[in-house]
Amino acid sequence: MGDPGFSLREAILGMRRSGLLVVAAVVVMSLSFLMLGLFLLLTVNLRHAVHLAQQRVEISAYLEEGVAPDAAEALGDSLRALPGVKGVEWVSKEQALERFGEELGSDAVLLDALEANPLPAAYQIAIYDDYKTAARVAALSERVLALGGVEDVDSGLNWVAQLNRAITVVAILDLIFGLIVVFATVVSVGSTIKLALLARRETVRILRLVGATGWFIRSPFLIEGALEGVVAAGLAALALWASYLFAAGFLPDLRFLSRGALAGFVVAGSLLGAVGALVSVRGMLKEEEEWC
Amino acid sequence: MISFYGVSKVYPTGTVAVDGATFHIEKNGFVFLVGPSGAGKSTVLKLIYMEESPSEGRVVVAEFASDRMRRWRIPYLRRKMGVVFQDFRLLRDRTAFENVAIALRVTHASKKRIQKRTLASLARVGLVHKAGEMAWRLSGGEQQRLAIARAVANEPMVVLADEPTGNLDPETSHGIFQLLRDIHLAGTAVVVATHATDMVRRFTGRVLHIDRGKISGDL
Questions:
Q1: Which domains does chain A have, with CATH numbers?
Q2: Residues in A 44-103 with any Cβ partner in B closer than 8 A
């Protein structure tokens, strides 16, 4: 590697010389990092929502009309005996209507128009956490439905499954935006480094003449690329934080990226910047063999 | 120290720049390579600092041989020599100090050594009082002396000068030749490629003639 102080001074000098092009490259990189960040944020929050939904998963076993109280009680015992069942709560037809009324709020007056209570009595079945997987809940629901007196079951698992599908789609988008970030960074940094190389063509020639190694010549350009990447990722992180604060005003439960993920974001910026510079420098120096 | 064994250099255009050259330059040698423009003088120097590799034959400089030379070793060869050009090849937007110091920085010398060797080299060419001056503000003669200071900063085994006085007036040119002569007297080999035959007559040294790539003279 080159002399770190010298390389840093040369990198800053190079950036000052390229001026507007460096600004344009940093803006392009920042925007692509911001897009990636927004999708990562969406992924984090969807995962959190799925986790919360899974925590709340319960099975409702709706009873057939006219099941005798003894039979209902026996059914409750059978349900308690099933593996994975933490507890059961009896919800009579009246209680079901009452709860529905509470959910309707001011619209509950509509229920007064009903001649009879159409809601079935039910058992709310709480299940253990390790039974809250899609397969286990589905299997348990099947067993509940097979018991006499149960007309229908509902676990709310369909909703969780839909959220899981959404997570898969967003994860694919994360990957696509990740690739766009790689491409945008390598191309943007590459163009600034090409300009810096052209501006420093004579310096490179002199450095080779006095016995500088390839790494000594390359290191200022790598530092320049890394600095541009860090600044771009840092700006994107700030914009992401501002977007989060804005959105959190409407969605108070919104989560932000962890500190580790943010640090990874900035580290990725510097690495991608350095890689972009390295690709550009290698290509240019190979093209200009007469410099050596 | 420098040996050419049947060296030829033919460029891709078909131009024969050096044609079957065999000669040796000893440690402490002071050699003029004389010939008209386009005779192949610069190519001989390029073969010595290995910017070009021979099409035929073999160039050996100290422990470095052209036929066994790996590309990554070239910088280490160049640290053992200083090269001076007609167009000076200075970092115009840097100070005189920085122009000399760069030759030491690439070797990862300590700050103390960089300071000491740079000032000593500038003193050697009479430019220590202009250490803080930007290179582009120096006169032609001063710029060439600065290039010589850079060439000797690493205490090289040989200084190669390619038409070092091509852009200078006769009086300044004489000063440059005198400086190269002093460097030689202090124990460094010097090879000067020039077509300034009047200067060559004034300074005693071994003379190699080159014309259309063929070398003759005091082989």
A1: 4-52+161-291 (no CATH), 58-155 (3.30.70.3040)
A2: none
- 3-class secondary structure, B136: helix
Residues of A in contact with B79 (CB under 8 A): 210-211
Higher local confidence (pLDDT), B208 or B196? B208
Instruction: Select from A203, A205, A211 the Cβ nearest to the Cβ of B78.
Output: A211
Q: Do A210 and B76 touch (CB under 8 A)?
A: no
Q: Does B75 touch chain A (CB under 8 A)?
A: yes
Interface of A with B in 191-210 (CB under 8 A): 202-203, 205-210
Q: Is A36 exposed, middle or buried (0-12, 13-18, 19+ CB in 10 A)?
A: buried
Give the span between the Cα atoms of A26 and A21, in whole angstroms.
9
Reply yes or no on whether the pLDDT at B219 is more than 70.
Answer: no
User: Is beta strand B206-211 parallel, antiparallel or unpaired with respect to B214-217?
Assistant: antiparallel
Per-residue confidence (pLDDT) for residue A291, from 0 to 100: 36
Task: Write the pLDDT tens digit of every residue in A68-86.
Answer: 888 888 888 998 999 989 9
ipTM of the complex in this document: 0.91
pLDDT band at A230 (very low <50, low <70, confident <90, very high): very high
pLDDT of amino acid A200: 81
Q: B78 in contact with A at a CB cutoff of 8 Å?
A: yes
pLDDT for residue B138: 95
What's the one-letter identity of residue A238? L
Q: Which residues of B touch A202 (CB under 8 A)?
A: 89, 91
